[in-house]
Amino acid sequence: MGGHPPLGYVVQERKLVIHPAESETVRTIFRRFAEIGSATQLIRELAESGAVGKNGLPMDKGYLYRILNNRLYIGEVAYHGEVYPGEHQGIVERELWEAVRAILATNTREPRSSSTRVQTSAVLRGIIRCGHCDRAMKPTYSRKDGREYRYYTCQSADKNGANACTLRTVAAGNVERAVFDQVRGLLRTPEMMVRTFQAMDEGDTKTPESKVMESLRNLGTLWDELFPGEQARLLQLLVAKVNVSHQDVAVHLKTGGLKSLLTEMDTTDERSVS
Question: Is CATH 3.90.1750.20 the right assignment for the domain spanning 9-107?
């Protein structure tokens, strides 16, 4: 076998042989990704544990996804678009591999454009409200010509008929993009930096302002690189309520939400960006 072996294997007599210590790292990667579904969090955990790649360097997202997509780890070989049984022993069980594949399929994203990115289904569930009725809006779906269309529907209209609310229904993709654009913009404003610093400084532990500024700058850069599912998870930490009306989409932040978000993202740096 030519080339460099992937993490978890060494080459002996031109064959892949499992490396005991590295294979444990590989199993941990698959197991934890199946449990948490977040590449960002997993990268952080791996860095904290001191785990490194085959090159001896901390892993980034690109490296992580190459591991998660490598069929060698279930004892198979991909060649010219076809998959064949390998002569080597796999490292992870097929059931775990399939669980990871299901998560990766859910997280698949389009090219990194805020106008075209498909958001995780119903990311505003539980926080979106009708600005006319002050009632919760729930995710609904319709299908036409083989395509599925997502909406958020005011519960007044849902329970009492369309005439009960002038807003009735909004297209999910449009309102989600508006919310994500507002959040991304808020994270990049000086005013938001000051508010974040003040919120984090209310506790017993004083956080250096420079650290807050650096964390927010990193987060503003990282935000566009996150998978929709990861963005949605951070959104739930940050946003208390979204009011939707015919005129606008108003985002209301949680008290202490920025502190929670930055606490989660605190150790994430540019290594987390593929």
Answer: yes
How many CB atoms are located within 10 Å of the residue 197 CB?
21
* Range with the largest mean pLDDT of 47-56, 178-187, 202-211: 47-56
Q: Where are the domains of the chain?
A: 9-107, 172-272
Burial label, 75 (beta-carbon count in 10 A; 0-12, 13-18, 19+): middle
Q: Which residues contact 140 (CB under 8 A, 6 or more apart)?
A: 150, 151, 152, 153, 158, 169
| Beta-sheet pairing, 137-144 with 128-130 | unpaired
Alpha carbons 172 and 153: distance in angstroms, whole number: 9
What would the pLDDT profile of 96-130 be if each residue is shown by its tens digit?
Answer: 999 898 888 766 544 333 333 333 467 888 899 99
CA-nearest of 5, 32, 34, 33 to 18 is: 5
CA distances from 22 to 5, 58, 60, 91 (A): 11, 14, 17, 10
**CB atoms < 10 A from the CB of 265, how many?**
22
pLDDT tens sequence across 186-227? 776 656 666 655 665 555 555 566 666 666 666 666 666 666
Write down the residue that tokens 């790649």 correspond to. Answer: 53
What span, in angstroms and rounded, lies between the C-alpha atoms of 91 and 94? 9
